[in-house]
Design brief:
The structure is a single chain. By secondary structure, this protein is an alpha+beta fold. The protein has three domains: 106 residues, DNA Polymerase III, subunit A, domain 2 (DNA Polymerase III, Chain A, domain 2); 95 residues, DNA Polymerase III, subunit A, domain 2 (DNA Polymerase III, Chain A, domain 2); 110 residues, DNA Polymerase III, Chain A, domain 2, CATH 3.10.150. It is built from seven helices and 26 strands. Helix 6 runs antiparallel to helix 7. The protein is elongated and about 75 Å long.
Length: 359
């Protein structure tokens, strides 16, 4: 049981798959490898399933049984190899990786059950989207949901119609990319799934296929495929009611000036929700105030353009700093209604809202 490929081709395959750490079920920490007329690697955490083919293989000797390779050890060996041809062979106890000058042996995980079945979809809706575009949507919306690798809770809403809408929220802030109001289907995708997918999409510029069934979504990109559960039952903040808000107070200033000041204020507040940053805005001046008895205090006067009645409003730094750091504009425009209504930022099809805190 063996195959020959190159280290870069195998690493490309492994980079499509999440490196999962699951202390409750050791088999979740393994790659499942099947070898027949092609070589396929699979990974799963029990809910999220992904698989990818090794491209450019030769000298394949198939096996009737799958092999389970400990993820981290095997991945690190392949990742650190120079670009070279490698021969990968298996027996019941170990996998051996040989190059012209080196040999590496990794003990296999002994798993006495048959391989878990890979979930299949009864597809009800299939569409495609450019990977670069979806990567941009996720980059914009993740600031409101905390999409990250290993995030075990929360989800992001997909609305599918003539185009794709993406909406995320953690209850205190909401970010959405709205491209259509003609919706055919909507569902929640786990943020953990999107965290894995985000890594796959990075640097790609091709079409990603998205297939939706009653309870799962399947993403396919060339030799890569992943399947994740979706949620149709949970309630999610209604973004539409926020998009119709009519603010009457408008702030415009240099983004870097605001970002740097918020960063300094965060040094004092340390991100503590009990000590928010206060913004006092009037005419052409924004006063930023932050204090925490155990640390100190800060007060800054910043130049700005402002239209509307003076307002004093306070925010957790977590609702301001990630957003201000992500948007790529020279001048940032923020809109307000009153000290208890959401702050609003709009740029094209992207909208961000942050709830203030009471002071």
């Amino acid at each position: 049981m063996q195959f020959t490929t190159t280290s870069q081709d195998l690493l490309r395959t492994l980079n499509f798959l999440p490196v999962i750490k699951n202390n409750l079920d050791p088999v979740m920490n393994t790659y499942m490898v099947t070898i027949n007329d092609r070589v396929e690697f699979r990974a799963s955490d029990g809910q999220y399933f992904s698989k990818a083919l090794v491209e450019n293989i030769t000298s394949v000797k198939p096996s009737e049984e799958p092999f389970f390779i400990p993820m981290r050890n095997f991945y690190e060996i392949i990742r650190t190899l120079p670009q070279t041809e490698i021969k990968v062979s298996f027996n019941k106890a170990q996998v051996t990786v040989k190059t012209e000058k080196s040999k590496f042996i990794v003990r296999l995980f002994q798993y006495d059950r048959k391989a878990q079945g890979y979930p299949t979809n009864a597809d009800k809706l299939v569409f495609s989207i450019n990977t670069k575009l979806l990567y941009q949507y996720l980059t914009q919306t993740m600031i409101a949901s905390g999409v990250s690798i290993g995030c075990d809770s929360d989800a992001t809403k997909f609305e599918v119609g003539e185009q794709l809408n993406v909406i995320s929220s953690d209850g205190k802030k909401l970010a959405c990319v709205i491209n259509t109001n003609k919706i055919k289907d909507s569902f929640l995708v786990p943020n953990k799934t999107l965290g894995y997918l985000y890594l796959v999409l990075k640097g790609k510029d091709e079409d990603l296929s998205i297939a939706i069934s009653d309870d799962r979504v399947r993403f396919t990109l060339g030799a890569f495929e992943s399947v994740s559960p979706i949620d149709r039952s949970s309630r999610y903040p209604d973004h539409n009611k926020f998009l119709t808000l009519q603010p009457d107070k408008h702030l415009k200033m240099k983004r870097n000036l605001l970002k740097d000041s918020v960063q300094r204020a965060n040094i004092i507040s340390e991100g503590d929700v009990e000590y928010p940053i206060t913004l006092n805005i009037k005419s052409d001046t924004l006063q930023m105030v932050s204090s925490k008895p155990s640390i100190g205090e800060i007060e800054e006067l910043l130049e700005c353009e402002y239209k509307g009645e003076p307002i004093t409003v306070a925010f957790d730094t977590d609702n301001l700093l990630p957003f201000i750091s992500k948007v790529e504009v020279e001048d940032i425009e923020l809109h307000f209604i009153n000290p208890e209504a959401p702050m609003i930022y709009k740029q094209g099809n992207f909208t961000y809202l942050a709830l203030p805190v009471r002071i």
